Amino acid sequence: MTTVTNKVDNPIAHLTPEDIEAIGAELDAIRQEVLDARGEKDAAYIRKMVDVQRKLELGSRAVLLASVFPPAWVLGTAGLAVAKILENMEIGHNVMHGQWDWMRDPKIHSTTWEWDNASTADGWKHSHNEVHHTYTNIVGKDNDLGYGIMRVDEEQRWYPAYLAQPLWNFINACFFEYGIAAYDLELGRNLRLPKEKRSEEFKRNLKATLKKVRKQATKDYVVNPVLAAPTGSFLPALAANFTANLIRNLWSHSVIMCGHFPEGVETFELKSIPEKETRGEWYLRQMLGSANISGSKLMHIMTGNLSHQIEHHLFPDLPSSRYAEVAPKVKALFEKYDLNYHEAPLPQQVYSAWHRVVRLSFPNGWLATTNAKNLPSQLKLLFAMATADKRKRRVMQRLLEGEARKLAQAA
Amino acid sequence: MSSTTAGPRSAARTGRLPNRLRSLLDAAVTPLTVDDLLDHFAPLRPGAASGLKGRIEAVEAETADAATIVIKPGRDWAGHIPGQYVRVGIDVDGVRLWRTYSLTHGPRPDGRISITVKAIPGGAVSQYLVHQARVGQMLHLAQAEGDFVLAPPRAEKQKLLMVTAGSGITPVIGMLRNLYSRNESVARAAYDIVLVHSAMKRDEVIFGAELRAHAEAGRLRLVERHTDTDGLLTTDDLEAEVPDLAERTAYACGPAGLLDTLEAFYDERRLTLHTERFRPTVVDVDAEGGTVTFTGPSGATVEADGSVPILDAAESSGVLMPSGCRMGICMGCVLPMTSGAVRDLRNGELTVAVPGETDPGGVKIQTCISAAAGDCQIDH
């Protein structure tokens, strides 16, 4: 993938500035419709969701008190994993977006919510709501693009270290909540600074995050297993908590990868974004920079309705339960202006996102020019590129790209 | 001596185990607390995490547009004195709205409390409570407040005048019920009551039958006036109806116009008048912009234009403000407004905070997309 403005066939070249503002006006109208309609049913929805989630978690933890019995272990672990996923995605993520602030309920409010995750609500609201949602898919500005550790765009220069990025991505998926916490702190950037140069704010946030991590880990790996110890279930309960966290991490990582990583989702160049981006231009960037997952109602709920990633990015503060009903209107708007509404089932999107991670771990054009027959020679080339100095690598890169272009033209 | 010190120590001992258990259980459910979870099963128990609540036990029609809501309050309800009011928070169309209502029963043996609500045209909460509230529904409560209460019985008989209009009868009915439901002879000996009550017409008198019954039984003298035939109650009417007015301690509750008139009348004569007001000064929501006062550590005052976000106006005046995306999506700039009105610059929608009516902690507003629509106070 290449940033929109550097593409040969720019997918928004056919839109006039007037078109873009008209899209903005139509989206504003869709938003207003929901604002006018939202009310008692929406409030009942989120309260029910919170109620179900808490009872499910409590029930699962109760079952795990006897997790020395395998059926109890399986049931409790599954229930706890689902409860954690609901808490993080359909409830926590959306509450912290302020989707339910209009209810004026101090218990379900973006400023008071704390979630069952290693990252703190404050850290998350800054890095996610503020940075990612404002600068969506702008290379170098939106840290969600590769989380600062991966190469997710052709325009990022390739280094041999990127060969390991599928592995990093998998490890990040397994321990995603810690990945998010580190990412919210911009840990990598801050740790590279000498100690005395780190900002007070970073030190404060680091302290808050470590405290949160400690409390979370104490809950899952000490207190709950200890409570289960009388039935001889200490170790099984510990394993159950670990497994539930692992499942939640893998699931949320997959869903989030599907939101912006699948092949065909557009990225943007910082210098192509006008200083004063209009509402229409911002909307358009959200439309092209997100991808949806199609599926059942249950699937939508389990993804926190992030399966409606496009709608979520257009209207991050509308109740998640309303995304499904605005989706057809948004889709019609895409069609009207001849834009690509990126939507596919979960396995397809996950595959596509992973394919991109793997493809970009290699130099541009390498995967495209590789087949079963030329694999030995390609591997030799890869080794040569990985060990070459900068200048030689650049020459080899150019040759490789030329070959890939030829291959694409032939096809 | 030893027994006096043993008391607190043993209390501390008995308190410690639950506290230890509590912190263990809190550690098992962090970032929630055990109370957060218990709220889902027993919202009326003492120490509920979401604050004091009540459950609607009955909704009884009083007139065509007034109803009494009987509420079972949570265990933390500290009781009240007849004549006091309570702040009630109820979710109308999903939005938590707070209003103040007089308690219309003295303390009842069954522990229930009641409010009597008259549906005001266009009143979101009053219309909802009278016409839509259902038995079993939960609402939020604050503790009873107010000093509109009777002085306790004294050796000599106290002469009282009560002047009420419309739903202004509600605190007074609480006093009367309390007096005559307990020890009637004591109450009759202690108080000599004249009640002047004004309502639109006879069948719109809330508690009409009950008041007339009190009068027939000789517990009080009732002067009932109906504006459709008698016109609005004036101070001349009052002096004519109550010749010994100067000897009576006066209590008045009703619309602002009546109370203003009565206050001037009593001030002139240097007589005592207790009043109860329900409607504070209405916010001037049509004003273009206004003065934004930041209460709290920042303590700044900013003149804000009606078309400029409060965030921008405050920042250009040098106030340190929390901020985020500056386009209304990240909630990084939210602050509680304790009074005043702001307009959402995106759709013109007004958000109003009225002390005593809206959340005491303030209505949370996004300063980056809200412009002042009149003077407002923001806690920051």
In short:
The complex is a heterodimer of chains A (411) and B (380). Chain A has 411 residues and is an all-alpha fold.
Order of helices and strands of chain A: HHHHHHHHHHEHHHEHHH
Mean pLDDT across residues of chain A: 93
Q: How many DSSP helices of chain B?
A: 10
Strand content of chain A: under 5%
- Outline the low-pLDDT stretches of chain B: 1-15, 280-285
Main pleated sheet of chain B: 7 strands, mixed
Helix content of chain B: 25-40%
Order of helices and strands of chain B: HHEEEEEHEEHHEHEHHEHEEEHEEEEE
Structural class of chain B: alpha/beta
Percent helix of chain A? 55-70%
Which sequence of strands runs across the widest sheet of chain A? 1-2
At CATH level 3, the topology of the largest domain in chain B is Rossmann fold
Chain pair forming the biggest interface = A-B, 49 and 35 residues
Terminal CA distance of chain A: 19 Å
Please, how many helices of chain A?
Answer: 16
CATH superfamily of the largest domain in chain B: Nucleotide-binding domain of ferredoxin-NADP reductase (FNR) module
Q: Roughly how many Å apart are the termini of chain B?
A: 50 Å
